[in-house]
């Protein structure tokens, strides 16, 4: 069973409808026990970083999410759900993220914002995602982004053009 986390916002119905279309069993819930019992978890995102983190805290979902991720079971953060995996976001100063990854989500400093369109994907190493399908080679992905994530552990970005931004991470 896939659990779609309901923190009071997010594109829940879109994610649920996509999984239903694929014939994948899923539920939308804000129950911490459901998260811990899940085979896979999705944290969809829509809204602001601060609002999401505040609601995750109010609903007592932060510890269950962290424990689920530590279990090694598949976890997918979509958009804001991905951003929440970092330590903080420029969008909501002084609000702590889940700190699964070191780094800060920052606003684009140049280029078109929001960044919407087909983009080539560049990876720092060979990556294989199982369960949810990501083809990580220079293929095109449709991306909508207003913020980008800076990863402390991706210090390899030195020398990369400034328009590169994180679209997927794996731990």
Provide structural commentary.
This protein has about 170 residues and is an alpha/beta fold. It has one domain (about 1-155): 3-Layer(aba) Sandwich (Rossmann fold), CATH 3.40.50.880. About 25% of the residues lie in helices and about 25% in strands. It contains five helices and nine strands; from the N terminus they run βαβαβααβαβββββ. The chain has helices spanning about 10-20, 30-35, 50-60, 60-70, 80-85; strands at about 1-5, 25-30, 40-45, 75, 90, 105, 115-120, 140-145, 145-150. The longest helix is centred in the N-terminal third of the chain and has 11 residues, at about 10-20. The model is unreliable at about 125-165 (pLDDT under 50).
In short, what is this structure?
The chain is an alpha/beta fold and 171 residues long. 23% of the residues lie in helices and 23% in strands.
The neighbouring-strand order within the major sheet is: 2-1-3-4
How confident is the prediction overall: mean pLDDT? 76
CATH homologous superfamily identity: Class I glutamine amidotransferase (GATase) domain
CATH C-level category: Alpha Beta
The helix count comes to: 5
End-to-end Cα distance, whole Å, is 22 Å
* Overall outline: globular
Beta content comes to 15-25%
The CATH topology: Rossmann fold
Instruction: Give me the strand/helix succession.
Output: EHEHEHHEHEEEEE
Total strand count, please? Answer: 9
**CATH architecture name:** 3-Layer(aba) Sandwich
Structural class: alpha/beta
